[in-house]
Specification:
By secondary structure, the protein is α+β, with helices and mostly antiparallel strands. It has seven helices and seven strands. The chain folds into two domains: 52 residues; 140 residues, Cupredoxins -  blue copper proteins (Immunoglobulin-like, Sandwich).
């Protein structure tokens, strides 16, 4: 009689492990530095290299740490990013302990709230693929413009928190969470067999 219940239990367990492991979100400390600031002259591309070294997923978060009296984080358009234009941001965060939630796929552009800092490479792009792993940047050019200003403008999240707990290395957090879930799944599988 016990064998009849094992197959549905194993299928349910497999689905639980799969969906739980795919929902692990990570908080990344931007640049893995002490603070969001002007990159050192020895490593002026620290933010672009850091972004390229990470695989961001939907619902991950970015943590920007900086002295609030000395800087801010601006989410901007690609044009503003390329020109270090600080006058009309999509979002301005200036509390010094800023969390930005990656709530939809696409490319996100961030610059310092001080144009002179941005000109010294204090800026960041983050690419977030869709849940199936593909990435399609927003449409540009005449087709996007023909749809009107509202249709061509991507939606940006205005979600951030007042305070964040310090986290260890984001990659090891995701891996250790996945390992813990898989270990629990193996233990339940083993239990179901015997």
């Amino acid at each position: 009689m016990r064998k009849m219940y094992q197959i549905p239990s194993l299928i349910s367990l497999s689905l639980l492990v799969f969906f739980t492991s795919s929902c692990l979100c990570v908080q990344y400390k931007v640049g893995d530095l002490n603070a969001w600031g002007i990159p050192p002259s020895t490593n002026p591309n620290v933010y672009s290299l850091w972004s390229q070294a990470h695989k961001f997923q939907l619902y991950d978060t970015l943590l920007f740490l900086y002295p609030p009296s000395q800087d801010a984080v601006l989410q901007v358009t690609e044009k503003a990013y390329n020109n270090c234009a600080v006058s009309d941001p999509i979002l301005r965060i200036d509390d010094g302990n800023s969390i930005f939630n990656l709530t939809h796929p696409g490319r996100f552009y961030f610059i310092s709230g001080i144009a002179a800092h941005c000109l010294k490479n204090q800026k960041l792009t983050v690419d977030v693929p869709s849940a199936n792993g593909t990435f399609f940047p927003p449409a540009e050019g005449p087709a996007g413009a023909a749809m009107g200003p509202d249709a061509a403008s991507p939606m940006y999240p205005v979600v951030f928190g007042p305070s964040a707990a310090q986290s260890s290395d984001a990659v090891s957090a995701r891996v250790s969470g996945t390992v813990a879930i898989l270990f629990a799944g193996v233990m339940l599988f083993w239990y179901a067999l015997f």
